[in-house]
Amino acid sequence: MIENVINIHELIGKGYNRFWHNKQFYRVVKGSRGSKKSKTTALNFIYRMMEHSWANLLVIRRYSNTLRQSVYTDLKWAINRLGVASLWRTNDSLPELTYIPTGQKIIFRGLDDPLKLTSITVDNGSLCWAWFEEAYEIESEEKFRTVVESIRGSFPDPDYFKQITITFNPWSERHWLKRVFFDEDTREDDCFAITTTFRCNEWLDDGDRARYESLYRTNPRRARIVCDGDWGVADGLVYERFRVAEFDRLDVLKRATAVTNGLDFGYTHDPTAFVSVAVDEPNKRIYIMDELYKRGMSNKAIYDELSRMGYSKSPIIADSAEPKSIDELKALGLQRIKGAAKGKDSIMHGIQFIQGYEIVIDPRCVNFITEINNYTWSKDKDGNTINRPIDEFNHILDALRYAMEAIRNHKRLRTLSAGALGL
Q: 21 and 157, same structural domain?
């Protein structure tokens, strides 16, 4: 048998020594972008499972369709990084990973399929570890606790321990994660919680570091979140009447007085942002049904993606600052797209109109959730709030303003897309 000698310190680098060895029940990392938290966690689990023959791992994200291209890929990367690919069997279709010598498994589930969560069993050892990746997407503590309850039992080994690992980007101080794991008065007792930043990632290149550092000059508020891993501060939010909640889409659409969509153009630095909304006018409620949020999209790519999502025949109000893009999208097949009617103080008028509604957000619309939790009023040089929103965290919220133009103009837009119907 050929043995691989692995230098763990060289493998993971700096900043994660305590995390790597911690065995408390809750092990939590909030971190900035580029802080290598997901990659380090993936390496840690592969290494630990090969070390402890009784361990099996349950990996959780809010939605099952996000697992394959995120945490599953990270764990396969970790297997290759450790040079042990011959000892692991991959199953991309489930997905699932199996440590061949012992039959230990890494099982992947989404919180959108509760029946599959309640029936998890393993053939060898114990299902003793869980990893909640991108835990910020989990809108309620109750959903989290349901999974934690499945990590139970014991095993006759002196080294045996159970553990819940949680990794996420801290977009809002309103989130239950802050109260449960970071606030001194309310945090869990058996808990190890740290904050990491891009500075502990020695494998970032100079260009990546320069982009992070430039944020301190161009956008200090965003830098505190993206670079320092601090909580997004909810003080001075533009929209305060919102909540994240699951709802019956068909029931909402039956009651909706209008269904409309907005599109804000972007490319290199800013994302293209699309939002689909249903409006319940008698109850003054906006339901955020669907979103698209992506950089580097050509007009053809925008058309292809919106068509795939089921919006090719739907009314769409887009940023009128790009009439050429609107014309191209119409020629490609978005026949009902038109430009927004901008004018003097149109941003403030649109904001004030939307403030008259409660906004209910589908948990799958994670980019909308991030923006609305961080879209605040600007401040003057003395730190006083002024009546102008910041020019940040506003791409999909601009799309919402465009979509709501139809309601402001008293136009009924009842065409239901496949996307709005969840098909």
A: yes
Q: Is 134 a catalytic residue?
A: yes
Nearest to 110, CA basis, from 155, 156, 162, 146: 146
Looking at the fold, whether 181 and 60 belong to one and the same domain comes out as yes
Left (φ > 0), alpha (ψ -120 to 50) or beta: where does 60 sit? beta
Cα separation, 86 vs 330, in Å, equals 52
Do 311 and 399 lie in one domain? The reply is yes
DSSP 250-265: HHHHHH-SEEEEEEE-
Query: Is residue 102 within 8 Å of 29, Cβ to Cβ?
Result: no
The domain containing residue 16 runs over which residues? 8-203
Q: Are residues 54 and 169 located together in one domain of the fold? A: yes
Tens digit of pLDDT for each residue in 287-314?
A: 999 999 999 999 999 999 999 999 999 9
Q: Where are the alpha helices (DSSP H) in 105-247?
A: 114-118, 141-148, 176-181, 206-218, 220-226
Using the Cα atoms of residue 207, residue 203, residue 227 and residue 129 in order, give the sign of their dihedral: positive
* CA gap 99, 142 in Å, rounded: 32
Choose, from 10, 51, 133, 134, the residue flagged as catalytic.
Answer: 134
Domain edge (last residue) among 181, 203, 225: 203
Asked whether the beta carbons of 396 and 242 are under 8 A apart, the reply is: no
Compute the distance between CA of residue 312 and CA of residue 290 in angstroms, rounded to an integer: 14
Q: 187-240: per-residue pLDDT in tens? A: 999 999 999 999 999 989 999 899 899 988 877 877 888 899 999 776 789 999
Tell me, yes or no, whether 269 lies in a domain: yes
Spatial neighbors of 245 by CB under 8 A, at least 6 apart, are 139, 360, 361, 363
Q: Are 297 and 272 in contact (CB under 8 A)?
A: yes
- Total number of domains constituting the chain: 2
Cα 48 to Cα 38: distance, rounded to the nearest angstrom: 15
CA distance 29 to 229: 10
359: three-class secondary structure by DSSP: strand
- Per the CB < 8 A criterion, the answer to whether 256 and 280 are in contact is yes
**In a domain? residue 210:** no
Global pTM reads 0.82
Residue type, 264: D
Q: For the domain that residue 317 is a member of, what is the CATH number?
A: 3.30.420.280
Last residue within a domain, chosen from 203, 231, 259: 203
Same domain as 90, residue 39: yes
For residues 261 and 395, state if they share a domain.
yes
